[in-house]
Amino acid sequence: MNQIEGICREVVEKSEWVAIATVGPDGAPHVVATWGDYIRQLGIDGPILRIPVGGMNRTEANLQLDSRVELLCGTRQVQGIRSSGKGCSIVGRAEMQRSGPEFDAAKAKFPWARAVLIVHIGNITPQL
Prior knowledge:
Oligomer: single chain
Strand content: over 45%
CATH topology: Pnp Oxidase, Chain A
Shape: globular
Order of helices and strands: HEEHEHEEHE
Structural class: alpha+beta
Strand order of the largest sheet: 2-1-4-5-6-3
CATH architecture: Roll
Largest sheet: 6 strands, antiparallel
């Protein structure tokens, strides 16, 4: 699956924030976060996610060495298996873009954006 559908789409549509993990040159994970609303404003259709970037300097450096990325989102607004609360993991490859149509669209909505993080979705797994 490389598109956000079903229960995972509902989770992304209701997540307040999303964690973004990359791998550093020493093999250690590095985690940043963004607001779920930022992702929704740039659209969640198709095989990519777009995330406006203001900082994320270490994330950008990590992606230049290893493009693997994992996003984790969750919300209590979606029913889980045993109680309220559902999450999903989105694994894929990512790149920072500082020009082009994806960047222009992000910059139009987020004037502070210095880049747009493009996440090419590889696999989506429900959590909880």
